[in-house]
Design a protein that fits this description.
alpha+beta; two-stranded antiparallel sheet
């Protein structure tokens, strides 16, 4: 079972080592204090972007570090819209029963249109990189503004995630109070994180102990 990778380090949102579209979905998270939005404020959104930047294509990641406050505000709005659409698609794919996790985007067609619009936000193409003495490699280039490029990169990965048969591995974490999603990468994995697994096991133990005393 995959443990949390750098969770709550640098950003308040849990980073679970999931595909980036799932990490974006999980910028909406919950704890004992209620529901939290890691994209709710510009400073928090900038921190989240810096945390996931190493996983983006180098040109996009480099541009993210140079964003102005106005650009970050614009990007945050675009990412929030994309996240809401992705959570609607995830709910569809997982038959998510959690009311607290429901996306404000109710219509499936609207969610699909938002993802496609985001994916087309900036042109993307492949480039061959081959320096003397090194192995050739493939690099993805992205045109347009940095804000558009970042949204486009995440949306394109989302298209691949939902269009691929592996979307069946996407899960809603059904631990009490959790609103996160994860990909089931191991047959025994049932929760988004070890923390949720421990809470479920503790609750079950409490219920058994209570039942034995009644």
């Amino acid at each position: 079972m995959r443990d949390e990778v750098g969770a709550r380090s640098r950003t308040s949102a849990p980073l679970l080592g999931e595909p980036l579209p799932v990490e974006l979905m999980n910028t909406l998270w919950a704890d004992r204090d209620g529901l939290h939005d890691a994209l709710g404020e510009t400073a928090a959104a900038r921190t989240w972007l810096r945390a996931i930047a190493p996983r983006l294509d180098p040109p996009v990641a480099e541009d993210l570090h140079a964003l102005t406050t106005t650009d970050t505000d614009r990007l945050t709005q675009r990412l929030s819209a994309l996240r809401d659409a992705l959570r609607r698609l995830a709910a569809q794919a997982t038959d998510d029963p959690r009311a607290a996790a429901a996306s404000p985007v109710r219509d499936l067609d609207t969610a699909v249109a938002e993802v496609n619009r985001a994916a087309a936000a900036a042109p993307r193409w492949s480039a061959l990189v081959w320096r003397a003495g090194e192995r050739p490699s493939r690099l993805t280039r992205t045109g347009g503004r940095a804000t558009e490029a970042a949204v486009s990169a995440l949306a394109e990965e989302a298209v691949e995630l939902f269009a691929h048969p592996d979307r069946s591995r996407l899960r809603a974490c059904l631990a009490p109070g959790c609103v996160l999603y994860f990909t089931k990468n191991h047959s025994r994995r049932e929760w988004c994180s070890t923390n949720c697994g421990n809470r479920v096991r503790a609750a079950r133990h409490y219920q058994r102990h209570r039942a034995s005393r009644s």
